[in-house]
Amino acid sequence: MELSREITALRRNNRGYVPNVLTLSGKWTIFLALQAAAAASNRSVSEFVLESALARADEALADRRSFGLTATQWKEFMAALDAPPRPLPHLERLLKEPGFFDGGTRQ
Q1: Number of domains within the chain
Q2: Are residues 8 and 49 in the same domain?
Q3: Same structural domain, 33 and 54
């Protein structure tokens, strides 16, 4: 069973991969499709699945990592970043109080 060897190798790998990520027991048609695709791209099943999953994760998160702005919007955005912070008296007071781990008590 090549799948178990691939998953075992993935588990033993010390590069930070999470064990037990993929379970395909009894799903031979899925495994065969993955194996064929991996072979076509000259990769192991583990490499193929991991690379495919990471590519899909990048696609899913792309709109949350960057955003496009017009020149006017960019100027407004930069002005907002460069502006002094607005006063937040409640936050200032909270940050000046001793914290739980400082040995103080909150009132």
Answers
A1: 2
A2: yes
A3: yes
Q: Is 52 inside any structural domain?
A: yes
| φ and ψ of 24, to 5 deg | -125, 25
Residue 19 CA to residue 10 CA, distance in Å, equals 7
Is 80 exceeded by the pLDDT of residue 26? no
For residues 17 and 36, membership in a common domain is answered with yes
Q: Stretch 89-96: mean pLDDT, rounded? A: 91
Query: 3, 45 in Cβ contact below 8 A?
Result: yes
Mean pLDDT calculated for residue range 65-69: 81
Contact 34, 25 (CB under 8 A): no
From the number of C-beta atoms within 10 Å of its C-beta (0-12, 13-18, 19+), residue 34 rates as: buried
Backbone region of residue 3 per phi and psi (left: phi > 0; alpha: psi in -120 to 50; beta: other values)? alpha
For residue 48, what are the domain limits?
Answer: 2-65
Q: Distance between CA atoms of 25 and 2, rounded to whole angstroms?
A: 12
* pTM over the 0.85 mark: no
